[in-house]
Amino acid sequence: MQERRNLPQMEVIQELLLPVTRTTMWMWIGFIVLGTILAAFAFAVAWMFYWGIGVTGLNRPGMWGFMIVDFVFWIGISHAGVMISAILRLTQAEWRRPVTRAAEVMTMFSLMTAMTLPFIHTGRPWRTAYWVFPYDFWRGIFPDVRSALVMDPSAVFTYLTGTILFIYITTVPDIATLRDRSTGWRKGLYRVLALGWQNDERQWMIQAATGFLLAALMLSIFVSVHSIVSWDFSFSLDPVWHTSVWAPYFVIGAVHSGVSAAVTLMVLMRWMFGFDKYIREEHFDAIGRLLVVVATAWVFFFMLDVFFALFNQDPRETAVMKMRFEQWPYTLMLVLIFVFGYFIPVPIWMFRKFRRNIKLMFWTSIMVNIGMWSERYWLVVPGLERKYEWTFDWNFYRPGIVEITIILGTFALVPFLFMCFSKIFPPVSIWEEKEGQNFLQEIKVGKASIPAIVREF
Amino acid sequence: MALRDVLGLYSDIDSAVAGVDKLAEVGIHREDFEVLSNAPYPEGAFGHDHTTSRLGLWPVVGACCGFAVGLLITGGTQVVYPMVTDGKPLFSIPPMVVIMYEGTMLAAVIFTVLGAIFESRMPRFSREIYDTRITDGYIGVLVHSPEESVNSAAEAMRATGAEDVRMAEARATKASQPARANRKGASA
Question: Would you say residue A61 lies in a domain?
């Protein structure tokens, strides 16, 4: 399995610091294109704040549209990072080393992006903030802890805080490396952030133990977060939303989309930063195998959700399911979900040759996330599009140009922030890569020479 | 008695290990020096290190604090603003557990990070002696030696192939004692 090559220390440092020290042409193109989309995003948000929520397609009864769908999607994407990082760290999987940092950073920026969406969705976010913070001790009025809308921010905030701290503490040794080879304002910044790290044995021991502890803690938070996000829907009594299967279904869906997004990111890092020596075909091979299992589990939960809705023969549930299966645009969504989310990528991932084809892995990972975004739309929007008792106003949800621009903006925001991060901190953990080099040994088995790893614990 | 720090820089692990052995020969104990490297080496690569920490306690203490704060927020707000819904009991345990769980985990994570910083003896911005070549791949052996053993420590390192040996100014014993006592602390 190990295809790692023994590389000189200086080569590892210089190559992995390349995004920090040099801005490649692809990075410039990325900054300009993504920056332009973000300018449109900022304009769309400002437009909506000025004119009000009426400029979107939201209307009774479909009050949760693109922005909530996108919120669920980005929360899902965020799940891969910490899951990959934490599980691989705990199991001491050697191939984790070039993947973990980028996956964690993707988690952080996906969560930040996700958290902005419900605020934007309210139309008047400053009033939302005023209403929630601080707790109104003077009048003794507090948010109702029984509401999933109180649990959700607490879970997402915990996950975001934990992720930021996790990334920071595992980046400190690399910040010290940057401190020792930078000048000007960067030196001052790295000096403060490195906290006086001096690479002694005690610090390395604590670093390893902290990695394990945080990985275990973050793994428990990761499972709770998307469960709680699913409860935003399933705590309600709305047909098709009100089901107990949504918590595990959301978690497995999040893993499916998130791990695919990690594949996309890994390919982009190879192309943009030239990390071919570090992000190798064996990594795509391993993640491809993981994806086959995850995708199949996700399809199982998808079928289970449909089955639960149809099994009880509640006319309201059946009506919404009928709409999902037979009415435009949900029929298109359904096709995208299955074809892009499962039937094209999974047979491809079954073959080792294809799992090691970088371009193929890139496009299949993009496909999965088109399918998974459609799935979130398919789950969220039809749930409210029905006539309630006393319904006096009825409109189907059709997203407007403002919402479409906002959604495109979120897809630009995450990579833009990732590139900004890469200009200040290395996107691949240098010390972990060097640690892997330190533990790497060649052993002879018969006539074969096999790379072997000396474990730290 | 004044202590002085001596830093020897080695370009490869084998000569660094030889230096460590030579230091033991000239009477400098393992707890009186530390090895600096730009990435962790397998445990015991430079001889048995007595470094221990209480890091494992930090998340436990944090979890207890977080649980208490979660209980205070969820229970306290329901007591202060009693809102009986549909005749159900005032204290709604399942949603309380969710927020208490998140509070517990959040504080456990925060305390773990604080513990990692504290146990790593950071922040420490004023370093007696350090060399940036360590992050380039050099291995440093940093000896905290009494004034009278400084020269023998430096000689031992030079004799075993240290490319550079640097000495810090002498400092009072009191300043160096906590660092050494820390390494002899209770196990995690």
Answer: yes
